[in-house]
Amino acid sequence: MAKDILLLCGAIRERQKQKNYQASVTPCKNCETLGVNGYGYCSDCYKAIIRENDTMMQLQEENQKIINSGLPLTDYDAEKGNKELLELVENNKDKSLFIASKSSGLCKTRTLIHVAKSRLKEGAIIKFFIVSALLREIAALFSYDLKEADKLIKNLCRIDLLILDDLGKEKLTDRAGESFFEIIAFRELEKKPTWITSNFSGEVLGQKLGERGDFFKRRIKDSYLIKILGP
Ligand SMILES: [Zn+2]
Known about the structure:
Layout: H1 2-25, H2 43-69, H3 83-91, E1 96-101, H4 108-121, E2 126-130, H5 131-144, H6 146-158, E3 161-167, H7 175-189, E4 194-198, H8 202-208, H9 213-223, E5 224-229
Parallel strand pairs: 1-4, 1-5, 2-3, 3-4
Helix pairs in contact: 3-4, 5-6, 5-7, 6-7, 8-9
The site of zinc ion has 8 residues, from helix 2.
């Protein structure tokens, strides 16, 4: 019995030796250096493959984070954009911002997206919405899944940064509109930054937003850094 085991151990050792020998004389699949591991690569190539794989996984993870946040994947060349605004946003990224301009093309949204992406990389939880799309989503959830609507609203109250793009096109008098103001007020209480862009000044927005206009104007005045761009 013991002899059998000894023979078996010897056979395994022999097979291992044979394998090691083969590995040491087999050329790498990538660079043909002799001596490969079980995957058929030399140790340098294998390390490089692992590194590349890690980078790819990291990139995929970063892209997934961007997709989850609602931010667009395409990158914006900040060097060609509105540098003054970029500096202002970067220096005040922990504050609530209200950025308005009558004309478009002043890079409001793109600048915010650019800075938001760098915050995303630092690990912040961010959501980006065009206001009309957010209101549509909340209204739709209200009509078929109150629990989900509630979950979304609570989530938007608590995330690190909420970006609300292009405010002022909608009436905000219905239930979804009420939720919109709830989110803004709650985030202010919690001292969580909200970034808002609009093609209207705070004054005009106040009028457009009907009975909630005064509430909104006060919020903006008290807790937001206001930047009006252009003429
Ligand atoms: Zn190699």
